[in-house]
Amino acid sequence: MRLTLAVPDLLALDRGAFAFAPALATLAHYANKPDTRCGTLDAFLLARAPEAEPIGAAPFAALGAGLDPGESYALRADPVSLVAGRNDVALATRIDDLSADEAGSLITTLNAHFGRDGLSFHAPRPDAWFILTDATPDVTTTPLAVVRGAIYRWLPVGADAARWRRWLSEMQMLLHEHAANAAREARGRVPVTGIWISDGGRLGRTPPGSDSEMFATPGAGGDVARGLARAAGSTAGATPASFSALPPRTSAVVVVERVNSARVAQLQLNWIGPAVAALARGDLESLSLLADGNGIAVAWHASRPGWRMRTSAKYATRPFMPPQREEDDA
Fold first, then answer.
1. DSSP bridge pairs for 216
2. Beta bridge partner(s), residue 263
3. Which end of the chain has fewer CB atoms within 10 angstroms, the N or the C?
4. Domains of the chain: which residue ranges?
5. Tens of pLDDT along 81-104?
6. pTM greater than 0.85 (yes/no)
7. How many other β-carbons are positioned within 10 Å of the β-carbon of residue 97?
8. 219: burial class by Cβ within 10 Å (0-12, 13-18, 19+)?
C-alpha cells in the first residue's frame, strides 16, 4: 500500500510541539530531501494529476465545497480584513466566522455590482468563496497563505492586472459600506473589508486521473481532495479516525484535520507513529507526508527503509526540523 498523509497547518506549529510527535523525525530520516514550495499543500495534491501544466486549485476547491464551476474559470475569493495605514494597506486576517446569512448578504451585493463585468460570486459555504467568469484572465496571483503585511507587492500582475486591481478596490468600497459589516462591528466581530483572489483555473475537459482513493476532512482543508475525487468521477471518503481504521487500499491519500499544538500528540498516536512503523515493517510500500503553514508547503517521500537505515534511525537524536520560509526581501 502507498499512503500519502496530508496535514494542514503542521508547519505553523512552534518547534517545541514536534517533540510530541517523535515519528516525524524518523520519517524525515527515512525520506528523500523534502520538496518545498510556496503556498499550501494543495499544490502537491494537484501535482498528482497528470497534466502538462500547473493546475489552479480554485476550481477543485469549489467542486469540493459543493459548487460545480462547469466550464467557467474559477478563482478563490477569500473574504479578508484589510487595514489601511498611512502609506499602504495591510492584510490583517482571513474572515472565517461568517454566518450563512452574512455571507449571503455580502455575496448578493457583490453580484449586483459586478454582474455587468461578467463576474459571479458564490459561497457554497460561509468559509468558501469563489468567483466564476467565462473569460480567462491574464493575471498571476499569490495564494493568500503566502501574503504578509502590506499587500501591494502581492497584488495580481499580468496583462489584465490593472482591471482586477480596480475591481478589488471597488470590492473594498462596497464591503466597507455594507450593513452586514456594520452589524458585525457592533457585535465586536472583525468586518470583511476586502477580497483576495488566487489559484485561478478551469476543471478542464479531462478529469485528473489517479489510482489513489481520497479521504478528506470536512471543511476547507479537505475541499481540494474532495474536488479531485469528484472530478475523477468518484467520492472522497471521510477521514478515518486513525491509521488502523484505514481500509486496505493499493494507494490512498488522507487529508486529516488541521493540526494545532494541542493535537500533535494525537496525530502521533493515530497517524504518524503507526504509519512510520508500518513503513519500517514493510506493510507500507511508501509513505509521503504533505504539510503546510506560514506560507510554505513541504513534501517528504519515503520508501521502506533498509535495515541499516532502520538501525541508524533508532539511534538518531536529531529532532524534526522542517524547512522554514525564507524571509522576503524588503
1. 238, 255
2. none
3. C
4. 2-52+208-315, 62-201
5. 999 887 889 999 999 999 999 999
6. yes
7. 10
8. middle
